[in-house]
């Protein structure tokens, strides 16, 4: 089983280990990530204006390239997943956007959102299965109390992302159980961390992060995991007295016994 893969900018620069752990874990679990050639930044922020076409084009190129290679595109980054999926829906549902993109790219056949966009976690849940993942674990993380931090981008807008229940998600908790640890449920796990405000208003981002950390700690969490690089860096950098924060692929590689080899 193989998928076209869009690593995104962060996982090719500051997050290289996150990328390596994800790729190596995929091989152990029976699927392969084949990086798209000549991909470009997705833009990191979904363009809300319907007449903002140029900022959609790099995503469209990646979606079309994945379509030529099997029709499914996987990413490890929640921001990339969010932008790619929503742009894909624009091309599927909005004739005006589809027509303007076609003219910009001089396409003989318009692209109409045929590619399916998946987050790596969806591959684990829906294609591999958490039960099979649990069976591959060689170093179960027993005794570790881990809080899942979802943030905004995986879950909302829920009718478009269709990733999990936006109010009571469970995919990360099921992942934590599969690698042998204990998930800690806390109220602020799906609230915004303020990551997009860090540059202009770091004080606000710090307050958001502290609320999340305090809530998770009060419920017994000793560690937070996330599936968004922006959230991970914001949670680490803006906490006044924070918990350790790691990317889910790091714990996956640790549980599968390949972390050091994949670094």
How does this structure look, described?
This protein is of the alpha/beta class and 263 residues long. It has helices spanning 16-29, 57-68, 78-93, 95-105, 120-128, 130-136, 158-161, 171-178, 202-218, 229-237, 248-255, 259-262; strands at 2-5, 32-35, 72-75, 116-119, 145-149, 182-184, 223-226, 245-247. The strands form two sheets. It has a four-stranded parallel beta sheet with strand order 2-1-3-4. A four-stranded parallel beta sheet has the order 6-5-7-8, sandwiched between helices. Strand 7 (223-226), helix 10 and strand 8 form a beta-alpha-beta unit. It is globular, with a radius of gyration of 18 Å.
Topology:
Layout: E1 2-5, H1 16-29, E2 32-35, H2 57-68, E3 72-75, H3 78-93, H4 95-105, E4 116-119, H5 120-128, H6 130-136, E5 145-149, H7 158-161, H8 171-178, E6 182-184, H9 202-218, E7 223-226, H10 229-237, E8 245-247, H11 248-255, H12 259-262
Helix pairs in contact: 1-11, 2-3, 3-4, 5-6, 6-8
**For this entry, what is the oligomeric state of its chains?**
single chain
Number of domains: 2
Question: Which regions contain 5 or more consecutive residues with pLDDT less than 50?
Answer: none
**What topology, given as strand order, has the largest sheet?**
2-1-3-4
Structural class: alpha/beta
Distance between the termini: 24 Å
Radius of gyration: 18 Å
The CATH class assignment of the largest domain is Alpha Beta
Percent of residues in β-strands: 5-15%
Number of strands: 8
Helix proportion? 40-55%
Helix count from the secondary structure assignment: 12
What series of H and E elements makes up the topology? EHEHEHHEHHEHHEHEHEHH
Largest beta sheet, briefly?
Answer: 4 strands, parallel
Mean pLDDT: 95
- CATH A-level architecture of the largest domain: 3-Layer(aba) Sandwich
What CATH calls the topology of the largest domain is Rossmann fold
Overall, the morphology is globular
